[in-house]
């Protein structure tokens, strides 16, 4: 019975360790896109859904224009805005379309609305960018080149601007995002799995974007979109040399942001993980198989919290006379997962997470418990705009 209880946790930690191993140690030369000139100059459209982003939209457009090829179309969908988002985006040089629909709210509907407008003069490639994000120099050209040449969606490395002076909670949250969006993403794709679409910095050839299932209110619409496209045989790929970044959420809003992200992930994983694994086995499809395995693994804090809870339960069983083998096996694999996570910090995360914040991860795990209890009692279903740490300063400057 105790082997039966321990087996799922052993599997989940094994998947996590395998992804980290391939993401950290089995490193090939980082993939780089061939210049866009290899296929001519693809016509690019950058689609930005924006909801009440007046405090940052000007900066976003200005930075974007500096980093994209000339002639790139920048379309902002001002979605149910009650502020100056549309006005400021136009002043910054973007094409803007207003959308008002109080019933159908959410990023997916905004993207579908923008697609309808793009369809009148379709580009070769559409890059989706969140309104608070910055594309690295030349990343748009790289993403478009690969997407058009290989006829698949392409995901850039999506990280958060981090400073070691940030509060520990924010640092740890940013590190968790680095592990997920860089290390595990890199490891999963090296194993043959499909790249995860993370909602921003993702490029689509028009032939795929034109029919993609966009119009929905799913909190994890990016994840669901990647799953649907993978099942259609258009496996998304990860282009690490292209980058997209955003400012960290304000400390008081970090829990709200993580609640929205993780509830969306858990719902999507519950619906799709096992079907993807079964479909991958039936079709001998490594992209679907490893994507399904990836979805089985819960967010890092929940993985560690449930693993430790199971260890305590098995330790009590050993004390009462049960065989120690399930406990020892799980203890070894949880310890290895902790070592690998520290390895990810040493190799990739020291600019994101200070040593002082690292040792507070157990406190962070406890801080996340209400997120998961809320999921059991009534999960988050609303799309909530999250304030960034520097938003007040930016807003004051614009008002001046």
Nearest-integer average pLDDT = 86
Supply the number of structural domains.
2
The poorly predicted ranges are 29-37, 392-400
User: How many H/I helices?
Assistant: 15
Radius of gyration: 21 Å
Summarize the main sheet.
8 strands, mixed
Q: Would you tell me which CATH topology of the largest domain applies?
A: Spore Coat Polysaccharide Biosynthesis Protein SpsA, Chain A
CATH architecture of the largest domain: Alpha-Beta Complex
What is the CA-CA span between the terminal residues? 67 Å
Order of helices and strands: HEHEHEHEEHEHEHHEHHHHHHH
Order of strands in the sheet with the most strands?
3-2-1-4-7-6-8-5
Query: What fraction strand?
Result: 5-15%
Q: Which term fits the overall shape?
A: globular
Counting DSSP E segments of at least 2 residues, the number of strands comes to 8
Helix content: 55-70%
Broad CATH class of the largest domain: Alpha Beta
Query: Which structural class matches the secondary elements?
Result: alpha/beta
**Name given to the CATH homologous superfamily of the largest domain:** Spore Coat Polysaccharide Biosynthesis Protein SpsA, Chain A
């Amino acid at each position: 019975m105790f082997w039966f209880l321990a087996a799922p946790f052993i599997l989940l930690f094994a998947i996590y360790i395998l992804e980290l191993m391939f993401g950290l140690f089995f490193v090939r030369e980082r993939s780089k896109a061939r210049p866009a000139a290899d296929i001519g100059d693809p016509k690019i459209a950058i689609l930005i859904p924006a909801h009440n982003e007046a405090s940052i939209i000007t900066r976003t457009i200005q930075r974007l224009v500096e980093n994209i090829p000339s002639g790139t179309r920048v379309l902002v969908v001002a979605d149910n805005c009650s502020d100056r988002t549309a006005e400021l985006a136009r002043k910054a040089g973007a094409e803007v379309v207003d959308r008002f629909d109080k019933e159908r709210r959410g990023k997916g509907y905004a993207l579908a609305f923008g697609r309808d407008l793009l369809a009148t003069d379709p580009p070769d490639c559409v890059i989706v960018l969140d309104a608070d994000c910055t594309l690295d120099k030349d990343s748009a050209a790289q993403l478009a080149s690969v997407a058009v040449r290989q006829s698949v969606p392409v995901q850039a490395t999506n990280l958060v601007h981090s400073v070691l002076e940030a509060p520990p909670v924010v640092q740890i949250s940013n590190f968790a995002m680095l592990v997920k969006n860089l290390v595990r993403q890199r490891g999963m794709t090296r194993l043959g799995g499909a790249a995860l679409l993370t909602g921003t910095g993702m490029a689509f050839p028009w032939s795929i974007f034109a029919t993609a299932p966009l119009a929905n209110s799913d909190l994890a619409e990016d994840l669901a979109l990647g799953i649907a496209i993978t099942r259609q045989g258009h496996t998304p790929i990860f282009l690490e040399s292209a980058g997209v970044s955003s400012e960290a959420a304000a400390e008081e809003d970090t829990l709200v942001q993580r609640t929205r992200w993780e509830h969306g992930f858990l719902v999507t994983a519950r619906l799709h993980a096992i079907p993807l694994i079964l479909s991958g086995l039936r079709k001998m499809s490594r992209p679907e198989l490893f994507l399904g395995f990836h979805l089985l693994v819960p967010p890092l804090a929940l993985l560690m919290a449930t693993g430790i809870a199971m260890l305590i339960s098995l330790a009590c069983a050993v004390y009462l006379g049960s065989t120690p083998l399930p406990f020892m096996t799980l203890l070894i694999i949880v310890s290895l997962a902790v070592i690998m996570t520290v390895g990810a910090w040493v190799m990739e995360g020291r600019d994101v997470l200070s040593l002082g914040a690292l040792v507070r991860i157990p406190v962070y795990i406890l801080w996340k418990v209400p997120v998961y209890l809320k999921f059991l009692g009534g999960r988050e279903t609303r799309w909530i705009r999250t304030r960034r740490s520097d938003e007040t300063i930016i807003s004051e400057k614009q008002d001046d």
